[in-house]
Hints:
It is a single chain. By secondary structure, the chain is mainly alpha-helical. Helices cover 67% and strands 0% of the residues. The protein is globular and about 75 Å long.
Amino acid sequence: xxxxxxxxxxxxxxxxxxxxxxxxxxxxxxxxxxxxxxxxxxxxxxxxxxxxxxxxxxxxxxxxxxxxxxxxxxxxxxxxxxxxxxxxxxxxxxxxxxxxxxxxxxxxxxxxxxxxxxxxxxxxxxxxxxxxxxxxxxxxxxxxxxxxxxxxxxxxxxxxxxxxxxxxxxxxxxxxxxxxxxxxxxxxxxxxxxxxxxxxxxxxxxxxxxxxxxxxxxxxxxxxxxxxxxxxxxxxxxxxxxxxxxxxxxxxxxxxxxxxxxxxxxxxxxxxxxxxxxxxxxxxxxxxxxxxxxxxxxxxxxxx
Length: 304
C-alpha cells in the first residue's frame, strides 16, 4: 500500500525576507539659466553693492587719519591704521554710558511693546470687541502720525509730571508708538487663529488667561520674536525724540551722542565715521545673533 508524502508546510513568519530592488531615481536636471536670470542676478548684485557701499566707506574712513582724508578723499585707503578717532569719540562722549542707555531703552521698549500688543490683539482679534475694525484703524492712524506733531504735546505732558530729561519718558513714548503697530499686526494674525484649538482648550478647563499664555503665545512665538527684534532696532536708531527729551549728558543715547562731534563750522570726518562705526556695531551684532530667529519668524507663516 502506497503511502502519500505530505510536503512540509512552510511558515511565512520565518521565511527570509527578499530584498526589494530599488529603482534608480532619476536625477533632476537643472534648468539652464536664461538671459533673464542673469539680468536679475546682475541687478541683485548691483543693489547689494549700493547698499554695502556706505558701510564700506564708514569702515575705511574710521581708520583713516585726517591727513590721509585730506590727501586722498573719502574713497582712498588709509596708509596706516589710525585709531585716534575711535579713542577720541569713546572718551569725549563717554560711549559706554551712552551704549548702556540705548540698550536699556531699546530692550525695555521691545519687551513692554510686545506684551501690550499681545494683550490688545487678544482682545481685538480673538475676543471680538464691538467696533474692533474701527479700533484697529485708529491704531493704524496713530502709528502713521509724524513724530514732529507729537513733540510739543508730549513735552508739555512730561514736563508737568516731572519725567522730562528722564529715560522713562522715552521708554513710555516709544512703547506706545511701537505697540500701536504691534496691535495692528497681531490683531490680523489672531483674527485667523483656529477656533477649534481655543474651544478644545476651553473644554479642558483652561481660563481665558491660561488660553492666552499657554496656547496662543507659544504658537505665535515666532511672530512675537520678529516684533521684538524690529522694536529693538527701531528704538535704537531713533534720534528726534531722544534728542528732545534727554538733554543731560548722562541720559543721552548713542545716536544723540554722535551729533556732539559736529560743530557750527568744522566737522572731523574721520572721528565722525568712527562714531558711526561704533554706533553701528551693536545693532549689527544684535542682528547677527538673532538672524536665525528673524528668518524663522518670517517664514513660519508660509509653512503649515
